[in-house]
Recover the amino acids of this structure.
């Protein structure tokens, strides 16, 4: 019997059905254009692009132009790639254009789908970004689909790491740009570290189509992209704190062994305040609760963790004057790996070895926040609907399930649950053997590289030939994955491995042709192709007879989405296929949820060794368990996002200001406003409102005016005059400093002055912002630990981050004003030296701004080794024309980078 819900769905259709239906008229219109476009010449297709562009410029909306544009693109793909887009592919394209996530199964041809909205939206001339998960795919898709765009008179670019500047510039200027999420994020950060507009690569964030969108916006969403560099030497700070820590007693702190967190009690805080003030670390009159003390609190926390949570010869060893970490699981040393956030330095201080400089963040952004920059965002993937709420809530993206071109013929079996892992693996090996014997290709999914390796050893023991994939070598992997559909192939892969490449039964013709031609370049390509196509048809037939691709999963993942992704690799384009999950009560997920109940059931059934239970009820309860974990993970992501938002809002303000300054021809008015504000603050401080003359600090004001404004004015005399009040003093200071700066401008000449003002503004913003993000990082690590009062860490963080931001703006104004008041024309010698210094700094920035590989949560602590001048292995890939990072002053190509 149908429930009310299902009954209603039958009558009214689901919301998804209605969305699909709504695209029908558009699809019909596109189809109506088919004949007209078939008849056009190649030049006509290009001319049509021009006319569409003009019509858009004249006011027709992209929605109006959609049917014609899609029809033009469809025809271009037919001519260049020999692919005639299915109606469902057009539908997918429409949903993307409308700013949705199009859920389309593997093998439905998403690469082609993206060309339609990309072409349509590029008619605006504003550039479209297509985002892929790895560089190999970006390049492959750009080359492959580039033919379609070229036939339409549009340019295609591809962006990749360490790309020569000119090439990267062209790629971003192209109508359609393919790039990975990493490279886009890094270019965004690097762009916002430049001091000249013309050095920026990205021209705004207009429209992005994100392929494998769930992987990028959910799995990797929180991964921050970080550009880092060494900080100044702060050994003294670490050593001083290190001397205080052993003085603490048990009343001063608590330790949570499980989370490895430490918290100071109120007593502890008081004790620390005394000692740190005495040691000159905490400025007089400051407490540890002030926002300005965030960094100190952070380092004290790290000092305590270093002493109480890290044990020599267990967690690390000291060798050759260095602290070397030990891998908790394998017991192996991990030379070169360093704990982040000053923790490694704290341990170095404790062990009294040399303290290596800390690597600090110069700029960072999360994918979440990067992708929210786009005016319009869209995405495609085989698996999004389980996370539809999250996509909507965080990105405002709706998920639409696009029907498959052909009905799915894959058989999805109920999970088979064994009591122990041993029984499960024995059964898996038998299952693989059975399939393998009849030639059915098997894709075995695992949850980790280690498990892949264990299984591989079992198969080797049985003499079953197989390939192992682990999501590290993208290009090679794409080949192996493409081969996974061959007759009798057995492929073991972690869930994420080879994403983006579809598995075709009998293997991939294009790859086979390419391989054959690489092996024998003399061969006739047409003959080779004909031969391979014939062989392939035969092999494909046999694979289909053997049942198509068998996806055998060895565990359920925490998220249903990842399981669906794996399942979906079989049964593409209506192919036959089979999927089955082999589980045991010892699996992680089973242990966390419901295994007791299951165990009871299994006992009642009186199961024998090696037997499994398979029942829809088991699937249901597992899926419920997964939904619970998904919900919890979403909550964690949401909470973290709220923290990120605070920094993000501030970053947007700063980057926006930077950009305005770069765009302006003259920033004198900004500098002047800053100076006047500094004067107001100064007067307020030394001549406070509602006070009498004898309470004023005329001397202090005199010194401050000298220091900050560079003017020597008789403040002490002024205050003795009758009728002089704060306002008069303020006006006189403004007058004096305006004149002082005007004289300076005359000395330099207006042209020079403008550029000096701009440079000083930008440099100061950058250095202040870097200090600020470091403080925020520290603040974030301490708010969670605060033991005092039951305050909400997020609120604390917000309030203090805001105060710190206000502080940043104040000190920015002061520093800019002061620096400008101190400039003086340089002698020729000095000028040369300065230019050289600026160039060296630029080059250094370039070489530091190497992409830090994004780190997963688990790896976040053990950061990549920092940049160390004396250690070439820490340099990343310096540009050949950059100064050598060793500090020799020679270009890299003439020094450490010499090709001998
Ligand atoms: P997905 O990303 O959806 O898994 P791909 O874009 O990798 O799929 O395409 C899978 C395969 O389907 C490719 O080999 C492609 O050539 C083929 N394909 C895509 N669209 C069509 C079409 N309209 N007709 C025939 N083959 C197509």
């Amino acid at each position: 019997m149908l429930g009310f819900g299902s009954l209603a769905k039958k009558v009214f259709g689901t919301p998804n059905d209605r969305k699909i239906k709504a695209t029908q008229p558009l699809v019909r219109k596109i189809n109506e254009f088919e004949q007209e476009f078939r008849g056009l010449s190649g030049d006509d297709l290009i001319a049509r692009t021009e006319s569409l562009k003009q019509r858009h410029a004249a006011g027709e909306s992209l929605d109006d132009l959609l049917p014609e544009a899609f029809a033009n693109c469809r025809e271009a793909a037919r001519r260049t790639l020999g692919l005639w887009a299915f109606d469902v592919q057009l539908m997918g394209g429409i949903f993307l254009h409308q700013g949705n996530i199009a859920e389309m199964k593997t093998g439905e041809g998403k690469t082609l789908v993206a060309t339609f909205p990309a072409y349509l939206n590029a008619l605006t001339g504003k550039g479209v970004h297509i985002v892929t998960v790895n560089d190999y795919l970006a390049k492959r898709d750009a080359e492959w689909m580039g033919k379609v765009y070229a036939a339409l008179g549009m340019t295609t670019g591809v962006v990749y790491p360490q790309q020569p500047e000119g090439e990267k510039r062209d790629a971003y200027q192209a109508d359609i740009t393919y790039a990975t999420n990493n490279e886009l994020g890094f270019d965004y950060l690097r762009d916002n570290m430049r001091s000249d507009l013309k050095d920026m690569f990205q021209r705004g964030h207009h429209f992005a189509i994100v392929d494998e969108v769930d992987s990028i916006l959910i799995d990797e969403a929180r991964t921050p992209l970080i550009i880092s560099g060494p900080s100044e030497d702060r050994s003294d700070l670490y050593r001083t704190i290190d001397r205080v820590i052993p003085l603490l007693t048990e009343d001063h702190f608590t330790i949570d062994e499980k989370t490895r967190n430490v918290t100071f009690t109120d007593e502890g805080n008081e004790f620390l305040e005394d000692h740190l003030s005495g040691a000159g670390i905490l400025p007089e009159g400051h407490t540890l609760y002030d926002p300005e003390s965030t960094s100190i609190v952070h380092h004290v926390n790290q000092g305590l963790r270093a002493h109480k949570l890290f044990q020599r010869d267990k967690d690390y060893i000291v060798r050759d004057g260095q602290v070397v970490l030990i891998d908790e699981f394998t017991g192996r040393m991990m030379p070169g790996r360093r704990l982040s956030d000053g923790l490694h330095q704290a341990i170095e201080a404790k062990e009294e070895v040399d303290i290596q400089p800390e690597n600090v963040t110069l700029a960072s952004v999360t994918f979440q926040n990067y992708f929210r920059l786009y005016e319009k965002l869209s995405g495609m993937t085989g698996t999004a609907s389980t996370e539809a709420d999250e996509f909507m809530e965080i990105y405002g993206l709706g998920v639409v399930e696009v029907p498959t071109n052909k009905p799915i013929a894959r058989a999805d079996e109920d999970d088979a649950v064994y009591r122990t892992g041993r029984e499960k693996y024995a059964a898996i090996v038998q299952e693989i053997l059975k399939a393998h014997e009849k030639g059915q290709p098997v894709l075995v999914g695992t949850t980790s590289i280690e498990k892949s390796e264990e299984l591989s050893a079992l198969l080797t023991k049985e003499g079953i030939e197989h390939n192992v994939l682990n999501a590290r070598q993208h290009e090679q992997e794409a080949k192996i994955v493409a081969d996974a559909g061959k007759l009798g192939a057995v492929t073991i892969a972690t869930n994420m491995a080879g994403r983006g490449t579809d598995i075709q039964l009998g293997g991939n013709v294009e790859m086979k042709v390419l391989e054959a031609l690489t092996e024998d370049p003399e061969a006739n390509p047409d003959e080779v192709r004909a031969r391979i196509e014939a062989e392939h048809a035969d092999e494909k037939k046999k694979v289909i007879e053997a049942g198509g691709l068998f996806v055998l999963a060895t565990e359920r993942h925490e998220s249903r989405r990842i399981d669906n992704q794996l399942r979906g690799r079989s049964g593409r384009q209506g192919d036959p296929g089979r999927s089955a999950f082999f589980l045991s009560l010892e699996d992680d997920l089973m242990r966390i949820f419901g295994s007791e109940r299951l165990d009871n059931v299994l006992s009642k059934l009186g199961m024998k060794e090696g037997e499994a239970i398979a029942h829809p009820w088991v699937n249901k309860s597992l899926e419920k368990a997964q939904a619970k974990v998904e919900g919890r993970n979403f909550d964690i992501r949401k909470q973290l996002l709220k923290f990120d938002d605070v920094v993000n809002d501030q970053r947007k303000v700063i980057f926006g200001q930077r950009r305005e300054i770069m765009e302006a021809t003259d920033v004198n008015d900004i500098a002047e406003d800053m100076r006047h504000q500094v004067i107001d603050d100064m007067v307020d401080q030394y001549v406070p409102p509602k006070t009498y003359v004898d309470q004023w600090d005329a001397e202090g004001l005199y010194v401050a005016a000298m220091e900050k404004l560079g003017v020597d004015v008789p403040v002490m005399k002024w205050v003795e005059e009758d009728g002089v009040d704060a306002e008069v003093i303020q006006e006189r200071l403004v007058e004096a400093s305006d004149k002082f700066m005007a004289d300076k401008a005359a000395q330099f000449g207006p042209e020079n002055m403008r550029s000096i003002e701009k440079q000083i503004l930008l440099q100061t913003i950058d250095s202040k912002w870097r200090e600020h993000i470091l403080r925020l990082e520290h603040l974030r690590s301490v708010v969670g630990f605060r033991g005092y009062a039951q305050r909400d860490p997020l609120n604390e963080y917000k309030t203090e981050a805001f105060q710190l931001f206000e502080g940043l703006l104040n000190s920015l104004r002061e520093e800019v004003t002061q620096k400008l008041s101190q400039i003086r024309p340089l002698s020729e010698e000095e000028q040369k030296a300065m230019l050289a210094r600026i160039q060296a700094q630029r080059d250094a920035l370039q070489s530091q701004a190497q992409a830090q590989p994004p780190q997963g949560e688990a790896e976040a602590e053990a950061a990549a080794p920092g940049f160390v001048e004396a250690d070439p292995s820490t340099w990343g890939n310096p540009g050949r024309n950059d100064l050598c990072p060793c500090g020799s002053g020679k270009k890299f190509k003439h020094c450490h980078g010499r090709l001998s």
Confidence is low (pLDDT under 50) at residues 849-869. The two ends are 79 Å apart (CA to CA). The first strand starts at residue 101 and ends at 103.
